Amino acid sequence: YFIDQNTGWRYTVDQVQKTTNAGVTWNFLSYRNSYVHTSRLLFIDSLHGMSSGTNINPLGSDATITWTKNGGVNWSSITFFETDNMHSIDILNNNFAVALGSNYSNFFVLYKTTNFGLQWDTIRPSLSTYGVRSIKLFDSVTYLVNSSSNIFKTEDGGKEWFSIYEDTSLSTYIRSMDFWDSSTGIMTMSNGNIIRTSNGGLNWTQISSGYNYDISNITLLSNGHGVITGDHGTVIATTNTGINWFSEARNVTLHDLYEIEKISVNSLIAVGKEGTIVRSTNNGVSWVNINSG
Question: From 248's CA, which of 4, 121, 161, 268 has a CA 20 to 30 Å away?
Answer without folding.
Answer: 4
